[in-house]
From TrEMBL, chain A:
Highest taxon of source: Archaea
UniProt-recorded name of the protein: Helix-turn-helix domain-containing protein
Domain HVO-0163 N-terminal HTH, chain residue ranges per copy: 2-71
Alphabetized PANTHER family for the sequence: HTH ARSR-TYPE DOMAIN-CONTAINING PROTEIN, TRANSCRIPTIONAL REGULATOR, TRMB
From TrEMBL, chain B:
Keyword Transmembrane: yes
Chain ranges passing through the membrane: 15-36, 48-74
InterPro entries (UniProt xref): DUF7471
Keyword Membrane: yes
Alphabetically ordered keywords of this record: Membrane, Transmembrane, Transmembrane helix
Name listed for the protein in its UniProt record: Uncharacterized protein
Amino acid sequence: MTEVRQQVLEHVDAHPGVHYKGLVRELDIAAGQAQYHLRRLLDARELDVEKIQGRTHYFTDGYDGWERRTIALLRRETTRHVIVYALDSDGVSAMELADELDLARSTVSFHVSTLVEAGVAEKYFDSKGRAHLRLTRPAETRSLLEAVTPSLSDRLVDRFTRLVDASFHG
Amino acid sequence: MVGAVGEWLTGTEAAVLLVILVLATLGTATLFLIGLAGYRRRRTRTYLLMTVVLGLLVVRSVVGIGTVLGAVPMPVHHLIEHSSDLAVAALVLYALLQLGPPSLE
């Protein structure tokens, strides 16, 4: 294995769920070079990918699909906050999430469906028909939480979407 | 300092303007990329409109640089800059109008 490819592999191993741009930036290699080595590593089944909302996250072996999706979502600032909030309670209402995290209802609804789609959380309704969110695997989610933190660019995009949601959708 | 500048400004003015325009380009380009990433996640019309608006701001700065360097003639500069103002106003107004009144979920 070439030195660069080894470097790429080690970086992905140390940063599970890293996305393509983050890898290029951190390793300071050309985009085309990164693309080439990632492709070869994927072909050799040394790496796995998880695509969420147009963004590709890379993983080394040893994470199942649920873990990959959870890690990828924990790299997004607002989703991460929703997860952390839900961790501390056995079922939280969408209304409470919006109030406590100071998010627009459309922002909450987007993140709730993303989490449900990824199998990280499940949605249920109480006797009054209000939507609630509950993590599917709280203990495992908590241990993954420490493995990753969102990058600056992720934080900025997240805040932009919150701003647009709050201004346009309420 | 700056070689090919229009007759409408001195070398010092051109240098200051150029610094401002380069910073504006970096700032608006960053915002545009953030907007683009937001649109890729949400794929809604509102996000598309915001991204186009941010893209227009980048175009404005780039045209400004072109004008200071003498590459864009003044009439063309004014035409592009003020047309983009019109487009920004129209796009944001459209984004607001297409939302309609609040509805119960």
